[in-house]
Structure formats: structure tokens, C-alpha cells
Design goal:
alpha+beta, 123 residues, flat, two-stranded antiparallel sheet
């Protein structure tokens, strides 16, 4: 009889501890989450802006926020594409030089420095 009571009290204690931890975390998150703009705390992302609409300060619309985020991503992708194109052009040049050296019968290898200069070393 006592073992059942002990078993149930252990389960109750475990459930009680889990409930206390989960509610405490939510409460702390409510207090610390958000940003204060113009005396009002908004629960928004750090880079989301607050704008004045009809005399009321409110977070910018999700459409404006997402457009700004996607524009930044688009800029990064454009830069990556241009860099990738440069790398491909350098690779084609290296392939052409290796092909030329094989046709001319040179033994050895072609070394390419980081600056893009080639040095033929015969061995």
C-alpha cells in the first residue's frame, strides 16, 4: 500500500516540476522578448522597423519586412553569381592552358597561383 502511494507521489512530483519549469520559461520569455519603441514593447524581430501609420506607431507590415529581407538575399545571390562566373572563366582558361601544354608535348605540370598567373614547370 505504501509503495503505491510513494509511486503516485513521485509521478505527481515529476509532473508538478515539469509544469513549473514550462510555465516559468514562458513567463520569462514574455518579459524579456520584444523591443521597446516609442515607449511600447513590440514582440518583433530585431531588424524589423517600427513605422507611424495614422498617428500610431506599429511594426512594419510583414510584406514590407519580407521584401526587404528578400532584397538583401537577392543582392548576396547576385554577388555570388558574378563571383561564380569569374571562377568559371578562370577554370576555362586553366583548362585551355593544360590542353595546349598536352598538345605541344610538354612534360610536367602547369601551376596556377592565386593571382591567376601561370608558371609552366617542366620536369
Amino acid at each position: 500500500m505504501k509503495s503505491k502511494d510513494l509511486k503516485y507521489s513521485g509521478v505527481f512530483l515529476a509532473v508538478f516540476c515539469l509544469a513549473a519549469m514550462s510555465s516559468g520559461g514562458a513567463h520569462a520569455e514574455d518579459e524579456s522578448g520584444g523591443q521597446k519603441h516609442y515607449g511600447v514593447i513590440h514582440n518583433i524581430a530585431e531588424d524589423r522597423q517600427v513605422e507611424r501609420v495614422g498617428g500610431i506607431y506599429e511594426p512594419e507590415g510583414i510584406d514590407k519586412y519580407m521584401k526587404r529581407r528578400f532584397d538583401a538575399i537577392d543582392e548576396r545571390l547576385t554577388a555570388l553569381e558574378s563571383r561564380f562566373g569569374e571562377v568559371l572563366a578562370q577554370l576555362e582558361e586553366i583548362k585551355a592552358m593544360v590542353g595546349d601544354s598536352k598538345k605541344s608535348g610538354q612534360s610536367g605540370s602547369v601551376l596556377v597561383s592565386r593571382a591567376g598567373e601561370t608558371n609552366g614547370i617542366s620536369g
